[in-house]
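Exercise 7. Given the encoded structure of a 368-residue chain, write a plausible sequence.
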């Protein structure tokens, strides 16, 4: 796993590692994969594409691993995939840039979370329902932010909605100039892109300007833990988009409570209320899925497993946690032309900012 364990997104890395370690413990207790125990190696990429590539090349010089989790951001994944493809190494990850879903270019990479574009129809429908004619977007000027902007640009234009934008340096401490630029264009709503402290600076800057137009966090900004770091005035008219399966009270897979207890008993338990259970189940599920298919196929060869993934159909009640019995999100059903999961606009919902409960489910409005 190439993941951030000490940099700006280390909190995410902690949750992802917690889910992976729980899955590995469970799989190895059942005999591993075809009699082989899974060994986890962690590379601290600090969410830096250059460092991630350097660490990957150092690891490959010692031999090929069976599976790589290629980073916690799309920018890191994009930097690693050309090398992993060259060496025919299987990778499965949760980063969501649509550029990663290119089976011809990256035949050995598969996504396990909906691509960033999957969240856009929910906003477009909301904008149409509210009669917005001009929308602004502020986004991080890196590969992840640029990709997010592109995802909104086309659909909004197609819906007859003008999109104006401003980008900021991900290391900036003040977004006020960009917000002033956007405010001068009189948009009716604002899309906020970013993660962690960047989102805080946007919300603080918006409040300083007295700009209380309806604002909506995108798929990256929404999970950012902001409770306790912003005031009620700073989140006035601000909503976040969440997968319905992450919300408290949503129907879940019957096997999930037992797995959550395992997360709580792990060294990563503190992250449940900081990042939510969805990050834990992301890596837990993907490793259980890979182990399941590898066991069926009697191989851990990357090329063979990639072909097997494209033919695999998720059973009605998979032998891992899954996203729940409602069928709103169907994971792990790929084709030679599509290596990302399918979803629908009803899988997402805009809610008030909140915090996570003791089991890691999002409670809108909690904490404010």
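Solution.
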């Amino acid at each position: 796993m190439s993941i951030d364990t000490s940099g700006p997104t280390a909190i995410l890395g902690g949750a992802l590692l917690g889910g992976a370690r729980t899955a590995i413990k469970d799989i190895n207790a059942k005999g591993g994969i075809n009699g082989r125990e899974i060994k986890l190696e962690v590379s601290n990429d600090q969410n830096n594409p250059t460092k991630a590539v350097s660490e990957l090349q150092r690891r490959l010089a010692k031999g090929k691993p069976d599976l790589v989790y290629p980073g916690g951001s799309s920018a890191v994944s994009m930097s690693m995939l050309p090398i992993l493809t060259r060496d025919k190494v299987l990778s499965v990850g949760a980063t969501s840039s649509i550029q990663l879903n290119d089976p011809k270019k990256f035949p050995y990479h598969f996504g396990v979370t909906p691509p960033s574009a999957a969240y856009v129809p929910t906003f477009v429908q909301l904008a149409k329902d509210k009669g917005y004619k001009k929308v602004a977007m502020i986004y991080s000027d890196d590969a992840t932010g640029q990709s997010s902007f592109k995802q909104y640009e086309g659909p909004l234009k197609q819906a007859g909605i003008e999109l104006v934008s401003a980008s900021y340096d991900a290391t900036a401490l003040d977004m006020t100039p960009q917000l002033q630029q956007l405010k001068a264009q009189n948009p009716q709503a604002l899309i906020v892109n970013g993660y962690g402290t960047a989102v805080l600076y946007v919300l603080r800057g918006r409040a300083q300007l007295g700009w209380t137009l309806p604002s909506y966090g995108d798929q990256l900004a929404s999970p950012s833990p902001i409770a306790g770091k912003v005031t009620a005035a700073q989140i006035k008219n601000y909503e976040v988009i969440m997968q319905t399966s992450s919300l408290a009270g949503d129907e879940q897979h019957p096997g999930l409570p037992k797995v959550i207890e395992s997360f709580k008993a792990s060294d990563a338990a503190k992250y449940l209320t900081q990042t939510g259970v969805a990050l834990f189940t992301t890596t837990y599920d993907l490793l259980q899925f890979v182990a399941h298919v590898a066991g069926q196929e009697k191989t851990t060869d990357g090329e063979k497993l990639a072909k097997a993934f494209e033919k695999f159909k998720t059973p009605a009640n998979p032998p891992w946690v899954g996203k729940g019995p409602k069928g709103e999100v169907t994971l792990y059903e790929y084709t030679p032309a599509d290596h990302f999961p399918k979803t629908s606009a009803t899988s997402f919902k805009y809610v008030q900012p909140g915090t996570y409960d003791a089991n890691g489910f999002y409670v809108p409005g909690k904490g404010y």
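Remark. The two ends are 35 Å apart (CA to CA). Students should compare their own answers with the one above.
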